[in-house]
Amino acid sequence: MAAEGQNGGDDGMMRIGKRCYVSNLAWKTSWQDLKDKFRECGQVVYANVTRGDDGRSKGWGIVEFENPDEAIAAVNTLNGTDLGGRRIAVREDREDRDVKQSLEGEEGAAAAPRPPRAPRGRGRGRGRGPRAPIEGEPSGFQVCVQGIPWKFTWKELKELLAECGEVERADVMSAPDGRSKGWGTVRFTTKEAANAAIEQFHGSSLEGRTLTVFLDKKA
Length: 219
Known about the structure:
By secondary structure, the chain is an alpha+beta fold. It is built from five helices and 14 strands. The protein has a four-stranded antiparallel β-sheet with strand order 3-4-2-7, with helices on one face. The chain has a four-stranded antiparallel β-sheet with strand order 10-11-9-14. Strand 5 and strand 6 form a beta hairpin.
C-alpha cells in the first residue's frame, strides 16, 4: 500500500513500519510495563523506555511489533489510553528504517488512515465519546471506523452502524493473509446518518476495544 509523505500528508494517511513512538509516559513506567501494555495489539519483539545519563526516564519509548498491521492496531487503539496514571500518545515511529525504505520505493511499511488526535476528557460508553475532529473536505457520506473487534466482518460492521441510517456499503480491511486490520469504512446514503454514527459511536467501547469514528477524507 502507499501513501504520500512520511508524516501523513494532505491525504490524512500515515505510513508506518513495525515500530511505534510512545510519549507522555509516567516516569516510573519501565520497558516491561510498556511491553505488557502493547501486547494487547500483537506480538511485541522489542520495547524500550529512553533514559538520560542519570538513569531517569525521558518520558518516551519505542515499541516494535512483528508486522506493520500490529503497529497500526496499536496506534488506533492505544493512543490516548492510560498507562501508569498518564494518557499516553502513540504514533508511527518516523525514524523507523522500514518507513524510510518504503519512501524510497522498497517494501516494509503499510499505510492506514491517520486517526484524529486523542480527545480530551474521559467519555466512556456508547454515545458518550466526544466527537472526532474533522479535517479536509470529505464528501460527508463515508466514515472510517478504527478499533473494531478483530473477528468483525463487514456484515457485522454494517449491522452495527445501520441503526444510525441506511448503509450503502461497509468494508473491513484485511491483510494479505486474510486477517482483519482492525478498521473499516461505512458509507451511508445521507450525511446526517454519517454524522449520527460519529456522534453515537466515536469513543465508545466494543468488546474491550475503543472505537474511533471520523469522516473519511478519501471518500
